[in-house]
Inverse folding.
């Protein structure tokens, strides 16, 4: 456990823990925007109330592939894989970086079908059963996360007829919108949600800017390690294994001597997959040629958490209040932010097996 002082909000890092920053992105105001009358500068600024958010996730990806909430076998041995939802809730409750002043968790939505797992809803009946996050953990209002978890099956994925599929997709997104409104959510954050969102992006729903996605890879078009799509971890490993350079002496293509860097990106969702306006990005996770997917995912999760926390704070302070007046098509970089240090939540949880995955895959 990394020692952390709640007074200074700084941590003393043991050897081997990386210290780095996150790149934030800002967008200029639209030319046709007329600023409102400025208030009296002598009056102190009132702090904006925390944004209420809902996480949307897919167990078939965050649990089956990333093995969040269970043990994962990495080179140093069995280690607990803590996901974004669990780490964020811990950070809010422990006042880490004053995150509770910016966001509150109001609910979690999963979309899996019975064919994806044995029964993804059954474990909700036992609040002390291991899950992708501990169901008995409580949010800032004292409500258990298990009671805030809602299952909305994305049954449109099984439909082959295009018209019926479109109708069922809209019905699914309407239900997600209804649940989020019932819970009082200001924004929706996709964490490994394995469906494409279209209907929620309309102006009479959340619109562009209030539906965010945390992508476990770099999507900045200016970065050579850009890895959009649904398989960024696999793509990163394949790219580093396939990288070659031309040797002038032997006149042959040989494996590149340098490794690849990947990371994570927080961005606003649009109809283009992983193509929305960026909020925050980091390219700090080294990809080795002998990496397995589980090894790379485990090393990259702290970077994801760092990007999310720095990005959501920047979003709440600089972007969300001015969404209607921002030109989201014009991209302009900001300077690198102050260093943000994470990894102290790794040993928060007792090591436990996953109730679904270890029954379905006993050899894992």
């Amino acid at each position: 456990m990394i020692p952390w002082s709640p007074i200074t909000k700084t941590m003393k890092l043991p050897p081997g823990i990386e210290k780095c920053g996150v790149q934030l992105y800002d967008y200029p105001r639209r030319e046709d925007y007329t600023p409102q009358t400025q208030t009296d500068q002598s009056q102190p600024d009132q702090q904006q109330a925390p944004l209420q958010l809902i996480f949307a996730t897919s167990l078939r990806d965050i649990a089956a592939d990333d093995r969040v909430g269970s043990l994962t076998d990495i080179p140093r041995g069995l280690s607990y894989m803590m996901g974004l939802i669990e780490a964020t809730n811990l950070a809010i409750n422990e006042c880490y970086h004053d995150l509770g002043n910016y966001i509150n968790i109001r609910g979690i939505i999963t979309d899996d079908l019975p064919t994806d797992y044995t029964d993804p809803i059954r474990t909700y009946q036992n609040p002390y059963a291991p899950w992708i996050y501990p169901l008995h953990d409580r949010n800032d209002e004292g409500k258990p996360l298990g009671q805030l978890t809602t299952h909305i099956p994305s049954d449109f994925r099984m439909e082959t007829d295009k018209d019926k599929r479109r109708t069922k997709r809209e019905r699914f997104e309407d239900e997600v919108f209804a649940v989020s409104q019932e819970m009082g959510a200001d924004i929706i954050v996709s964490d490994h949600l394995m469906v494409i969102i279209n209907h929620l992006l309309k102006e009479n729903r959340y619109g562009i800017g209030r539906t965010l996605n945390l992508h476990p890879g770099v999507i900045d078009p200016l970065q050579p390690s850009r890895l959009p799509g649904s398989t960024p971890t696999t793509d990163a490993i394949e790219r580093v294994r396939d990288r070659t350079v031309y040797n002038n002496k032997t006149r042959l293509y040989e494996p590149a001597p340098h490794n690849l860097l990947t990371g994570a990106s927080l961005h606003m969702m649009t109809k283009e997959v992983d193509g929305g306006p960026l909020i925050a990005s980091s390219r700090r996770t080294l990809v080795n040629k002998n990496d397995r997917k589980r090894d790379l995912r485990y090393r990259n999760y702290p970077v994801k958490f760092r990007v999310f926390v720095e990005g959501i704070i920047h979003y709440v302070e600089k972007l969300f209040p001015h969404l209607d007046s921002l030109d989201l098509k014009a991209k302009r970089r900001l300077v690198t932010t102050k260093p943000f240090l994470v990894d102290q939540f790794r040993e928060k949880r007792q090591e436990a097996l996953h109730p679904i995955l270890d029954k379905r895959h006993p050899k894992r």
Summary: The two ends are 26 Å apart (CA to CA). The chain has one domain: 48-360. The mean pLDDT is 78. The longest strand covers residues 278-287.
